[in-house]
From TrEMBL:
Organism: Geobacillus jurassicus
Domain DUF1648: residue ranges: 10-57
Domain of life: Bacteria
Keyword Transmembrane helix: yes
Transmembrane segments: 45-65, 85-106, 112-130, 160-178, 184-206
Classification via PANTHER family: IMMUNITY PROTEIN SDPI (PTHR37810:SF5)
InterPro entries xrefs: DUF1648, SdpI, SdpI/YhfL
Signal sequence, start to end: none
Full protein name: SdpI family protein
Keywords on record: Membrane, Transmembrane, Transmembrane helix
Amino acid sequence: MRISRLAIVLTALAYLLSLAALPYLPDQVAIHWNASGEADGFSNKWLGAFLPPLLMTFLIILMGVLPKFDPKKESYGRFQKSYGIFNAALACFFFVLHVVTLVYNLGFPVDVGLLVPLGVGALFIVLGNYMPKIKHNYFVGIRTPWTLESETVWNKTHRFGGKVFIAMGILSMLTVFWRGEMQFVLFILVIVFGNIYVMVQSFLYYQQEQRKRS
């Protein structure tokens, strides 16, 4: 399975940005923010600078080896382009988070509470658009007991889930109109209920298939 070139380029660029920023970072850098967008978790600057690029590297390796271990490895050839876009979208998301973290720790004003919901929302929208193209496999996509058992349920769930993910992305972005704890609560509710909705619909699709067979 060919890995997205964009993911590789962004990962290399992330390392370069870390090396360039390292001399100017404080000894302790922020790596986590609370619901109000205030930094509440810190690490030494080496970990803060290089953990995101290392995670991006791990993601590239993981996306490269997963198809080799999947019993349905032949399916990946049928959605290779979408798989590459998934890889690129995740790399873009982590790269943006990395840049935001570096900029914040270099002392520039960054509204993390605004940028994170926008980034997550954009990621959901991209994933939702390509989700219906993912073919039956064991590692990538909406993996419920019912989608894994039936390819028909898989296809129906991913067509439905793609629409739900796009809606989740839009709603996640809209949470920026609230700030503080209310924004965080709404953001979490969107993600939790969106995923529950997809799982319930997947079960209903499975029940429909069972009735057709009986």
